[in-house]
Write a structure and sequence with these properties.
By secondary structure, the chain is mainly beta. 7% of the residues lie in helices and 53% in strands.
Length: 899
C-alpha cells in the first residue's frame, strides 16, 4: 500500500562495539547509535510512486513483512481501493478480477485456475516478492486489457552483498482445537503432490477414447463389457477415503535465502539470489451452503433455514478439514557492465496443494423428513497448482549516442492444475422403530460422483522498447517506442464418472464409510452388482466441451512521450495498438476429435483489433505537492472459458457457470484525478477522484432454465455501466501529539464509490445484446425475463473499502508492533432472479496484530495474531445464508536468522 510505503518512524539500533586497544584488562565503553529500520526499498517505493507519470500504488517487501501477509493476494488488500475475493483474486476499485491484469516482472504469465484466465495471486509467496506495483491509470506500455488496474509482481533481484538467511515458523488456528475428518492419501502428500494413488487409471483413460464405445466407459451395443472388465475398472479407482476423525497438526514453515555478488573486473560484476520455502497448514472450519432459493417445501424445515416463506431447496451444514502445502523456489542471475548494460535471468517455480474433506448434514426439501429420513454428504477435493517461469531481461544505455537506450525481454511460463480424483457421495439415515441405519441415498437418480481434471497453460512472451532523451532549455523530453508479443495455449480435460446407487445391490448400500462400501472384497464380489454383467455400474458424465483446447495471441506496438516543462509541468502519453486473437475449441465427448469443424470454428473465433490512447498531465506545485490528471481508453476481453459453451463450477458459490460464443469485449473510458502531498519524515497524504464509463460490461446473470441442485449462470454482456468514486490515504507520525507518541505512526485509506450496470433485460420488444446471448444459450426463440434488477451495482463492487494501521517502534529499535484493520462494504456475488434480491457477501472486519522482536541486527522473532475479532465469511440472500464459513483466529510465531 502506497500510504505505508515509508515507515520513516521505524527505529533500529546498530550496536557498535569498539575494539580493544589497550591491555587485556582494559575495555572501551560500548557506543550505541540509533538509526532507522527503514531500508532502501521502503524509501524507493515511495519515491517511485511520486515520480511515476501515471497513477500507481506500490507495496514494498518491508511493508508486506510489517503487516505479516504471507502472499501477494493477502498483501494487496492493504492497497487503497483493493479488496480480496476467495483469498486469491483482487478486485481493484470494485471491479471484478476479470477487469484487472497480472504480470510477473512486467511479463504476462499463464493461469492454473480452470475458471479464470487471471492468475490467482495467492500463488506468489511473500518470500520472493520485492514489491507489488498496482497501476491504476493506463499507460501505452501496459496491456490494453485494463479496467481496475494492472498488478505487477516484482521478484527480488541479486543482492548488493553476501546474504544467507534461514527462517522457520509454527502456528495454529482457534478452530483447529476441534477434530475434523480426513483420510490417508498417497505417500507423497507431504510434498504437495499425489503419487498417482488418486489418479484415473490407464484402463479407464483408454476406454474413454475408445472408438468401440458410444459412451466411452460402459461398453454397449456391439462391444459390451464383461463383468470382470467392469470390476477391474471400478476397482482401479481410489476408494480408501473413509473418512476418519482427525486431530490436525500445528502449521509450520521453513525458508532459506542465499545470494552474493562478485566483481569480475573490467567494470563488470555478476551475482545470484536463490530462495526456497515450504509451508504445511491445516484448517478446520464450520461451513454452511445453501442453493436454489425458492418457496416450495419451506414450511417443512426449521425456521432457522427459512424466512418469509423462502428457503434453499438444498442446504449443507458441517465440518470442512483442509490441508494445504505450498513450496516455492527462485534462482536469479545477473550481470552488470559499467552501469550501462545489465542482464537479468529469473527462474521461478511455485507449487501448492489443497486437500479438503467435508462431512456435512444435507437437507433436501424434497427428500428430507426430519426424524425419519435424514441426509448427509461427504465430498473430497484434492488439487495441485503449479507455475514455472523463466525470464530474461536486458537493459542497455548508450551515453555516446545521446543517451539512447534499448531494453528487451523474453519469457516462457507453464501453469498446470490437476484434480486427480474428487469424490462426492450422499448418505441416507433411516430411523424406524428406534433403530437407525445408514446407507447410500435410496433415490434412483443419485450417484457417487468421481471427477478428474487436468489443465495445462503454456505462454511465451517477448518484447522491446527503445528511446532517446532530448534536453532543451526548460524542457526534458523522452520519446519511446516498443512492442509486446504474447502467446498462450491451453489444454483442459474434465472427466466425470458416476457410480449409480441403483446399480449396487441393496444389501451392499448400507454403511457409513466409503472404504467399507467400496472395499476390495465387495468390488470383487459378483453379488455387489445389481446386474449379472455389472451393467450400469459406471456412467460417463462427460459432455461435448468438457475437454477443450484454446489459444490466445496478442501483437502490440506503442508510442509514448514523457516531457518535463520548466520542472513544473509533466505531460506523458501516447497510443497503443493491439491485435488480439482467441479461440476455444471443444472436443467431442469420449473422443479425441473436435466437436466443431470448418466454418463452425471460424464462427467461434474471437478477434479484436483497436488503438488505445492515454494522456497523463502532472502539475508540480513544489517539491512536495503535485496534481495528476489521467485520461485513457482501454478494453476488457472475454476469458477463454467465457466464449465456451461448456459449464464449469464457480469455486465461491459452487454454481454452474457457462460462457457465450457471442460475447463481446467491453470498452472503457477512464478518468483519474489525484492530489499528492509528500511531506518531511515520510508523512504523506493524497486524495483521488476516478470515473469509468463501460460499454457492454461483462457480467454474470442466471439462465432462464434452472433445475437441479444449483442455479446455472451465464457470462454475458450488459448494455452499459459506470463506476465513480473517491480515494483518500495518509501516513502520519504522532510526534505532534507529544514526545510520548513520537514512536507511533498511523496510516490508512478509504475508498467510497458507486457503480451501476444496465443489463438489457427488459420486455420492451427490442432484443438486446444480453437477450440475444441468453436465447443462444437456451437454444430458444423466446424466453421469460427472470432478472430481478435490470439496473444494479456491478458484481463484486463494494461501495466502501477501509484500511487502517497503527504502528509502534521502540526507541532502542528492538521492538515493533502493528495493528492492522481492513474492511469492505457488502458486494454482489450472485445477481438475483425471479424477484429474489441479489446475493451479497457481507462486510468482513479483519483485525490483525503483528509484533516483532529484534534480539540483534541479524535475527528477528515475529508473533502474529490474525482475525482477532473472529469474524466469519458470509454471503446472504433474502436474509438467508447462502454461504457461511468460520475463519477462526490464527496464531503464528516465526524466527529468521541472517548469517
Amino acid at each position: 500500500m502506497a500510504v505505508i510505503a515509508s515507515f520513516a518512524l521505524s527505529g533500529a539500533s546498530i550496536n557498535a562495539f569498539a575494539q580493544s586497544q589497550a591491555a587485556e584488562e582494559e575495555a572501551i565503553e560500548e557506543v550505541v547509535t540509533t538509526g532507522t529500520r527503514l531500508k532502501g526499498s521502503a524509501t524507493a517505493v515511495l519515491q517511485e510512486r511520486q515520480n511515476q507519470a501515471f497513477v500507481a500504488d506500490i507495496l514494498g517487501a518491508d511493508q508486506i513483512s510489517r503487516t505479516g501477509d504471507s502472499d501477494a493476494a493477502g498483501a494487496l488488500r492493504r492497497v487503497t481501493g483493493l479488496t480480496l475475493v476467495d483469498g486469491k483474486f483482487i478486485y481493484v476499485r470494485g471491479l471484478g478480477e476479470r477487469y484487472s491484469s497480472t504480470q510477473l516482472n512486467g511479463m504476462g504469465v499463464p493461469s492454473p485456475d480452470p475458471t479464470r484466465s487471471v492468475v490467482p495471486l495467492d500463488l506468489f509467496p511473500a518470500d520472493i516478492i520485492e514489491s507489488l506495483n498496482v497501476q491504476k491509470s493506463f499507460s501505452p506500455n501496459m496491456p490494453a486489457h485494463f479496467g481496475g488496474g494492472n498488478v505487477d509482481v516484482r521478484t527480488k533481484t541479486i543482492p548488493n552483498e553476501f546474504i544467507f538467511k534461514v527462517s522457520g515458523s509454527v502456528g495454529t488456528n482457534s478452530n483447529n482445537s476441534d477434530d475434523g475428518f480426513f483420510y490417508d492419501g498417497s505417500d507423497d502428500d507431504w510434498t504437495g503432490r499425489d503419487d498417482g494413488t488418486r489418479g484415473l487409471s490407464s484402463l479407464i483413460k483408454d476406454s474413454f477414447e475408445s472408438a468401440q464405445s458410444d459412451d466411452g466407459i460402459e461398453g454397449s451395443g456391439r462391444y459390451p463389457l464383461t463383468l470382470a472388465q467392469r470390476q477391474e475398472m471400478i476397482s482401479s479407482m481410489f476408494w480408501d477415503i473413509g473418512p476418519d476423525s482427525k486431530s490436525v497438526d500445528p502449521n509450520f514453515g521453513l525458508g532459506a535465502t542465499l545470494g552474493d555478488v562478485y566483481d569480475i573486473g573490467d567494470e563488470s560484476e555478476i551475482g545470484f539470489l536463490s530462495t526456497i520455502a515450504y509451508d504445511n497448514d491445516w484448517k478446520i472450519e464450520e461451513q454452511f451452503n445453501g442453493t436454489n432459493l425458492g418457496t416450495v417445501g419451506c414450511e417443512d424445515i426449521s425456521s432457522s433455514l427459512s424466512k418469509d416463506g423462502k428457503c434453499f431447496a438444498q442446504s449443507y451444514d458441517g465440518i470442512s478439514t483442509e490441508q494445504s502445502i505450498s513450496w516455492s523456489g527462485m534462482l536469479n542471475l545477473g550481470y552488470k557492465y559499467n552501469n550501462n548494460h545489465r542482464l537479468d535471468i529469473t527462474n521461478v517455480i511455485l507449487h501448492d496443494m489443497r486437500d479438503r474433506v467435508r462431512v456435512r448434514d444435507y437437507i433436501d426439501v424434497n427428500e428430507t423428513v426430519i426424524g425419519e429420513r435424514e441426509l448427509s454428504r461427504v465430498d473430497m477435493l484434492f488439487e495441485e497448482r503449479r507455475m514455472t517461469s523463466s525470464q530474461i531481461k536486458g537493459t542497455h544505455n548508450f551515453p555516446k549516442l545521446d543517451n539512447a537506450f534499448f531494453d528487451w525481454y523474453a519469457g516462457s511460463s507453464r501453469a498446470r492444475r490437476q484434480q486427480p480424483g474428487s469424490l462426492d457421495v450422499v448418505y441416507q439415515k433411516n430411523a424406524q422403530d428406534g433403530i437407525i441405519t445408514q446407507q447410500l441415498q435410496d433415490v434412483a437418480a443419485t450417484n457417487v460422483t468421481r471427477e478428474y481434471q487436468d489443465l495445462n497453460d503454456v505462454s511465451e512472451s517477448f518484447g522491446w522498447n527503445a528511446g532517446i532523451p532530448i534536453y532543451k532549455s526548460g524542457l526534458e523530453l523522452e520519446i519511446k517506442v516498443g512492442a509486446d508479443f504474447f502467446e498462450k495455449a491451453r489444454s483442459a480435460d474434465n472427466i466425470s464418472i458416476a457410480v449409480p446407487h441403483r446399480a449396487i445391490s441393496d444389501e451392499y448400500t448400507f454403511g457409513s464409510r466409503i472404504d467399507e462400501i467400496f472395499s476390495a472384497d465387495n468390488l470383487a464380489n459378483d453379488a455387489f452388482y445389481n446386474s449379472s454383467t455389472g451393467a450400469g455400474i459406471l456412467e460417463s458424465g462427460v459432455a461435448d466441451g468438457d475437454k477443450y483446447a484454446a489459444g490466445t495471441m496478442i501483437d502490440a506496438f506503442y508510442f509514448m512521450a514523457d516531457a518535463f516543462i520548466d520542472n513544473t509541468w509533466r505531460i506523458s502519453g501516447g497510443i497503443r495498438y493491439e491485435n488480439f486473437r482467441q479461440l476455444s475449441v471443444p472436443f467431442s465427448a469420449h473422443a479425441n476429435t473436435f466437436s466443431v469443424e470448418g466454418e463452425e470454428i471460424d464462427e467461434i473465433a474471437f478477434e479484436d483489433e483497436d488503438y488505445f490512447p492515454s494522456l497523463a498531465l502532472t502539475y508540480m506545485l513544489d517539491a512536495e505537492m503535485q496534481f495528476r490528471l489521467n485520461i485513457s481508453e482501454t478494453t476488457i476481453r472475454p476469458d477463454m472459458r467465457d466464449i465456451s459453451t461448456s459449464f464449469f463450477i464457480d469455486p465461491i458459490t459452487e454454481f454452474l457457470v457457462r460462457g457465450s460464443p457471442l460475447l463481446q469485449s467491453s470498452k472503457l473510458t477512464n478518468l483519474d484525478f489525484r492530489w499528492e502531498w509528500y511531506r518531511s519524515g515520510g508523512n504523506n497524504i493524497s486524495a483521488a477522484l476516478f470515473y469509468k464509463d463501460i460499454d457492454t460490461p461483462i457480467e454474470l446473470v442466471e439462465l432462464g432454465t434452472v433445475g437441479g441442485a444449483a442455479p446455472n449462470l451465464l457470462t454475458a454482456n450488459g448494455e452499459k455501466g459506470e463506476l465513480y468514486g473517491v480515494e483518500l490515504e495518509f501516513l502520519q507520525d504522532l510526534a505532534f501529539v507529544g514526545n510520548d507518541f513520537a514512536n507511533f505512526y498511523m496510516s490508512g485509506n478509504l475508498t467510497l464509490s458507486e457503480s451501476e450496470v444496465t443489463i438489457g433485460a427488459e420486455d420492451d420488444g427490442i432484443t438486446s445484446l444480453f437477450e440475444s446471448q441468453l436465447l443462444d444459450a437456451l437454444d430458444a426463440t423466446s424466453a421469460s425475463n427472470i432478472v430481478t434488477n435490470n439496473t444494479r451495482r456491478l458484481v463484486g463492487h463494494s461501495e466502501w473499502v477501509a484500511n487502517l494501521q497503527l504502528g509502534w517502534d521502540s526507541s532502542n529499535g528492538e521492538h515493533t508492533a502493528t495493528v492492522v484493520y481492513n474492511a469492505f462494504g457488502p458486494r454482489i456475488i450472485v445477481p438475483g432472479t425471479r424477484g429474489n434480491q441479489d446475493a451479497e457477501e457481507e462486510t468482513f472486519h479483519s483485525l490483525d496484530l503483528i509484533y516483532t522482536y529484534y534480539p540483534d541486527f541479524k535475527s528477528s522473532v515475529k508473533v502474529s495474531v490474525k482475525n482477532i475479532l473472529n469474524e466469519q465469511k458470509e454471503i446472504t440472500q433474502e436474509g438467508l445464508s447462502l454461504l457461511r464459513e468460520e475463519e477462526g483466529t490464527s496464531f503464528s510465531v516465526s524466527y529468521s536468522w541472517e548469517f
